Amino acid sequence: MPTTTWNRHHVLSLADFTSAEYDTVLQTAASFQEVLSRRTKKVPTLQGHVVANLFFEPSTRTRSSFELAAKRLSADTLNFTAATSSMTKGETILDTAKTYLAMGTDIMVVRHREAGVPNAIAAEMNRLGVRVSVLNAGDGQHEHPSQALLDLFTICSLIDPNHPRLELLKNKKIAIVGDILHSRVARSNIWSFIASGAQLHLAAPPTLLPKLFAEYILEHSELTTGEFIISSSPSSPTPQLFLHWQLEPALQDADFVMTLRLQKERMTAHLLPSLREYHQLFGITRTKLQLCKPNVKVLHPGPVNRGVEISSQLMDDPEFSLIQSQVTSGIAVRMALLYLLGSGKS
Ligand code: NCD
Q: Ligand 1 center to residue 222 CA distance, Å?
């Protein structure tokens, strides 16, 4: 394992992650990626530890990925599903968490459709003075840190498989396209990509951009491409965050394109004329990728609506698509997070 300093007790958001913490996660994940390529893919690191997956919202890849990651580290795993739990009998979220605490849980991996639930559980664990770590596996429209970290690892280890690190993304052009308004993945990605020094371009119809960004667009309706600038340091002369309500300027010379699912379950109003029109204007296809750098790569956190945000053909094209590699990277990155949170406790 790389020698690292890690003082974080919970992983709830990437907003306050330091460059050193990103690099620690990337390097630790790289060592676990190596373990996963061996014949025996298991290490005894978290033997005797209990990891509880508290998923109050449906999930395929995140939940399976955390479960496999915990098992590869030899932890014991508990799996909770809201629909088949005592919550249907009126038990509160905090009482459910305390039940898992009483069983000796060391790490709680929490997903909930309301923003802030993992923070509330972490605050309760702190209040009780117990050494239980909480890992946010996606809360409402707030954040999804482990997904953004696996996206970061997928990209950085493509550039330098032996030594993935944050600085590899400096000045790379990354476009995030689609339903940014409802995306907790994008909200975490924005922190990590800005921290890396990448040029981040967000492209979406104004109805699918966060309110602050959409208001900026309305105020500057004379522009054809918005430019909302955030620099990593106030003295930095290079703008880092650009907003577009047309796809083409975001794709122009991009190194990486991340497309997002239209999250219909979180939409409270009709925000789009039709899925067909959305695909025409914002769907990523082989033809549209011609605007990007020749070796551009495409990412998607999944689950994918084929033929809506990305064409079916492109999704399956190994020359461009990193979608399967994101899923694979997810196990090593989640092993890294569980290891970093769990290794301090025994
Ligand atoms: C994302 C999520 O649940 O936020 N998926 C994931 O965790 N891989 C994105 C989505 O639901 O579209």
A: 34
- Ligand 1: nearest atom to the Cα of 183: 4
pLDDT in tens, 160-219: 999 999 999 999 999 999 999 999 999 999 999 999 999 999 999 888 988 777 777 667
Question: 31-65 b/e with 16+ CB inside 10 Å = b?
Answer: bbbebbeeeeeebebbeebbbbbbbbbebebbbeb
222: exposed, middle or buried (Cβ count in 10 Å: 0-12, 13-18, 19+): exposed
pTM (predicted TM-score): 0.93
CA-nearest of 331, 259, 264 to 296 is 259
Distance (Å) from CA 177 to ligand 1 centroid: 15
Select from 73, 49, 68 the least CA-distant residue to 345. 49
Q: Is the CB of 8 under 6 A from ligand 1?
A: no
Q: How far apart are CA 260 and CA 345, in angstroms?
A: 37
Q: Where are the beta strands (DSSP E) in 140-229?
A: 173-177, 199-203
Atom of ligand 1 nearest to the CA of 111: 3
Q: Confidence class of residue 221 from pLDDT cuts 50, 70 and 90?
A: low
138 lines ligand 1 (CB under 6 A): yes
Question: Is the CB of 302 within 6 Å of ligand 1?
Answer: yes
Structural domains of the chain in order of their starting residue, each with its CATH number: 19-143+328-342 (3.40.50.1370), 145-327 (3.40.50.1370)
